[in-house]
């Protein structure tokens, strides 16, 4: 766990491309090597004991809790989010689940956004069965969040730019509310990424990223991360188990997530995937600038097209949370959703497009397209879809690196 709450001396990408060598690499390797060893041995048994008892800093014992390669990626994510430490997981969902399951207990209340990733919404059902109450509200309105807080509320969970509808929570006001009520504010920053927005700036205690998406960005490896921003007071959090209530309280939260969520539940990232994700992270800023510019140009073009009923994109003036997006985000990201006037044309339109690949998934280098109601929100059912504002004609786009002119020409022929 490296600490990088200190003010950085360099800009975003300068910092990230030089991050690997900070902790020193063998033989002067310019990239962090892929460490495949599962076991880590010590000359003196006292050192091995020190690793177990947490007094031997920077030591490894068994790869289920980390390797030098995953630790380098953790340090990189920590730098990007300006946190005090991070833990990486095999997928974004492993990170989401570990956060809920290690920090909430039966009888607790989780207050969450109703605009969340479909699988996260599915986890809410699992939590309810385990005796954790879950309420979902429209987080674009802080009054709704405030009204839903109960005496047993422990955590407030939101996503920075919701998929597929691009709703944006009242990020700052919810941060203030959480601070006043002593609630843990957890922000899933997957779509925006720490390049466009850092949740630490609005008071988040924990930040989750699916590394599969913006940060990895090449569509070739799965991963997830949880970052502790250092803002939450773990000393007052009732659910920390006795073995982790030792030493500086600032470390208690991540310690519990690592021991329970990684060591016990086992969703560890492989060193190979960590290496791929770390390489992808180096081009995060370049990819986000490019895909955000393309997405905005396409959103503006679609919005004036007579066959289109609605376009959902944060940097359009018509977006309901446009002011929040302008205030907090460097750009609007690669995520765009729109609705055809004639919902019945939705599937035929997708088939007429030549460039976008008909596939689920987000933030690849290629543009991906999917009709939402028939696929990723099919299992959720009509009631959940209606509650989230997902109509039968909604189409989601994840913009890739193609030139805007080529995409525009393809959309023009498919809409003609
Ligand atoms: C994709 C996604 C996840 C899950 O990430 P995986 O790496 O696919 O498991 C979680 N949250 C959001 C917002 C996502 O888009």
* Strand segment tally: 12
Main beta-sheet strand count, sense and barrel state: 7 strands, mixed
Principal-axis shape: globular
CATH-assigned fold name of the largest domain: Aspartate Aminotransferase, domain 2
CATH architecture classification of the largest domain: 3-Layer(aba) Sandwich
- Kindly provide the name of the CATH class of the largest domain: Alpha Beta
Could you explain the architecture of this structure?
Its cofactor is pyridoxal 5'-phosphate. The modification N6-(pyridoxal phosphate)lysine is found at residue 213. It holds the Pfam family Cys_Met_Meta_PP. With 416 residues, this protein is α/β, with parallel strands linked by helices. It has 15 helices and 12 strands. The strands form 2 sheets. It has a 7-stranded mixed beta sheet with strand order 1-7-6-5-4-2-3, with helices on both faces. Strands 8-9-12-11-10 form a 5-stranded mixed beta sheet, covered by helices on one side. The radius of gyration is 22 Å and the shape is globular. The termini are far apart. 47% of the residues are buried. Pyridoxal-5'-phosphate binds next to α4.
